[in-house]
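Write out the 3D structure for:
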Amino acid sequence: MISEDRICAVVAAKRSSQMSQQLKQALRHTRTVELRLDWLLTDNEIFTFLRRLARTRLRAILIATCRRRQAGGQYRGTIANQLLVLAEAIRAGCAWCDLEIESASKCPSEVLDVLLADSRRIASAHFFGASPANWRRVLADLRSTNPDAIKIAATCDSLKAGLRLLSLARSKRNTVVIPMGDVVLPLRCLALREGSSLSYAPVENATAPGQVSLTSVKDLYRIDQITRKTSVYGVIGDPIAHSLSPQLQNAAFQVRKINAVYLPFLVHDLRDFLGAVKPLGIRGFSVTLPYKRKILRYLDNCDPLAAAIGAVNTVVVRGSNKLYGYNTDYVGVLRTLQERVILARCRVLILGAGGSARAVAFALAQSGASVSICARRPEEARKLARAIDGQELSRSRLKTEFFDAIVNATPVGMFPQTAHSPLAAHELNCRLVFDLIYRPVKTKLLQLAARRGIETVSGLEMFLAQGIAQWEIWTGQRAPAAAMSKAVLKAVRTSGQETFRATP
């Protein structure tokens, strides 16, 4: 075994002082650390850092890496210089060194034995472009250099490809596999469960596509505690990086001491994700843009309310991987608005006609509100208006109409496109503006409304309400609402967003 502490922190910086600071941060979370010496700007910076390291003699498993540019690293020196750097790192206290196959294959084994004799060696291969057709050949090439462990990192454009890569680690001792890319980010979190000897996580600077930060893998996903018995949940969408659902749901699992993890899935192909439900043992998942309506065709059954709405944001996986759909956006809308307006007497404008808009429209219409729909696709707006006995309005009419509330159910203004608003200030003729977007908390739309003295409501309140309802559907338990709200507010503060007073 490479190390009992299987989370490997990645330390990578341009200056030796920064490397030393990152190393201190890493050791607060794990005793296994990869030192990316190739990131240091010059050989002088490298040897300055290694001299400092030699004086500290840390009680940790240190892995020295000085990857050359030809293998996706930063080091510009020759192979001979690369080996001298690794040899110096061993003398400074590194028990392991990582040498990529491009360099190892050009060195006589006798040379490697002499220069790297006092360490154990990882033979690594990295595929940043297309994956090789024959993984067995790659494994054979790596093992031909007689290493103590092997590592394969490959860019994967689908969960299917990532699962194929992870299968290389099963039943093979001292084998590290790393799926790279945003689509397979969840697989990096599940790699230890699938048999990988290590999972790499950067302290500050990402050194490969789709890496998850050290604090996230330790505190948010707790990947070192994931086993075959861990239930897997997630959220699917495109985009998904803005989602705070992992903070919300994982906080609840941790408080209730449930062996489960909730992961974000960036989904470009819905069928690819659904094909991974069984092999990953996924028990349930949240659904966000653009799949709230598309998921319906893949469900085995659906809650009558969600079927009537025509959109699903919550899926439970039961029995032999049967998918059952629900809609908790409906609950979130009612809990958010009924404290502020008398729904049975108000006139509401909904911007958008997608899955979220449909949940809002049905919730308000069934509560007695008079609902109008405005969307960039007039035909979709008319269909939704007919379904709820509402009215379709063109945007040109908004400046002459007045509403008790305007609800934005479009993604316009969502992170990272935060400078945009679905409406201009002169179109906000209403008493209240409610934006379903929760990142940022104060969207451009809400800022425009506030300047006009209009009451504003952030989507964060609805997000909490619908997410709490989801968790209770999945687990059958009462959700720890206060802890979930606290976790989300902490994440918002950490990301530099504004906070709000939440009432879970």
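The CA atoms of residues 361 and 371 lie 7 Å apart.
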